[in-house]
Amino acid sequence: MLETMILIFSLIALIPAHASPNAFRDHLQDGSLGPEMVWIPAGSFKMGEFQGEPDEKPVQIVTIKGFAMGRYEVTFAEFDKFVKATDRRKPSDSGWGRGNRPVINISWEEARAYTEWLSQQTGQQYRLPTEAEWEYAARAGTETKYWWGNDIGTNQANCYRGCGDHFKYTAPVGSFAPNAFGLYDTVGNVSEWTYSEYENKYKGKEKRGISKRRAETTRMSLRGGDWSNGPSEVRSAYRSMGTAFDHYSSVGLRVLRR
């Protein structure tokens, strides 16, 4: 028994500080790897914020089935692979650099197409997260404004004036500490497209996805806030929106896998 415990602790010690024991990556058809994913356990949480904006209400208890979510926001390196494979035009990096920076200047439609490509490449079911799934994963068991507490603190996230970070625009993914589920940059950096139609009050659409046809005629929800937002706009409950064909230098995506 003692020898077994020593072996387990020895193996844990070999895991890098930034690694997650429940992380994985699916193989693409060319043998390369897709985005790093983390398994998120099923559970219930309090969605919304009593002291938040009007569209963050009514505060409700939501039960979520388990899923896997991208450990990081999708990077330019990952998205550019999709662009090349599907003969699309590369999205602009606004002059801030590509590589491991989060992809920006992509529409909801392009984000959706990327998840469909991942599904085809891996044989697994990838898509964008619903608003409820996104907030559940971002909170990681907390009910505070940010996953670490109610104060924005210093150098915990990338946002505009108030976060104490040194980034002017986007930051390379994983530049700050992860939440308890092992997810990075759920606060700030770039806002993330979701699978849900935006409503100015919670009436149920936050818990489900939307058809491509419907998305083309309505507003889609964005989550997480971004580098251009202040501390009040990068809270776990904060919501914004855009139309399916909008492109912003502050918006990217994170993928979900069933």
Sum up the structure in keywords.
paralog of FGE (formylglycine-generating enzyme), four-stranded mixed β-sheet, 258 residues, 11 strands, disordered N terminus, 5 helices, globular, alpha+beta
Overview of the molecule:
By secondary structure, this protein is α+β, with helices and mostly antiparallel strands. It has one domain: paralog of FGE (formylglycine-generating enzyme), CATH 3.90.1580. Helices cover 20% and strands 17% of the residues. It has 5 helices and 11 strands; from the N terminus they run H-E-E-E-E-E-H-H-E-H-E-H-E-E-E-E. The protein has helices at 2-14, 76-85, 108-122, 131-139, 212-215; strands at 23-24, 37-40, 43-47, 60-64, 67-70, 126-127, 191-197, 219-223, 239-243, 251-252, 256-257. A 5-stranded antiparallel beta sheet has the order 1-2-5-11-6. It is globular, with a radius of gyration of 18 Å. The protein starts with a helix and ends with a strand.
How many structural domains can be distinguished in the coordinates? 1
What's the Cα radius of gyration?
A: 18 Å
Helix content: 10-25%
What is the overall silhouette?
globular
- CATH topology: the name is paralog of FGE (formylglycine-generating enzyme)
For the termini, the CA-CA separation is: 37 Å
Q: What is the spatial order of strands in the main beta sheet?
A: 1-2-5-11-6
Number of helices: 5
Low-confidence stretches: 1-17
Q: What structural class results from the helix and strand content?
A: alpha+beta
SSE pattern, N- to C-terminal: HEEEEEHHEHEHEEEE
Strand proportion, as a percent range, falls in: 15-25%
The CATH architecture name reads Alpha-Beta Complex
CATH class wording: Alpha Beta
Overall number of strands: 11
> What is the residue-mean pLDDT, rounded to a whole number?
93
- The CATH superfamily is known as paralog of FGE (formylglycine-generating enzyme)
Largest sheet: 5 strands, antiparallel
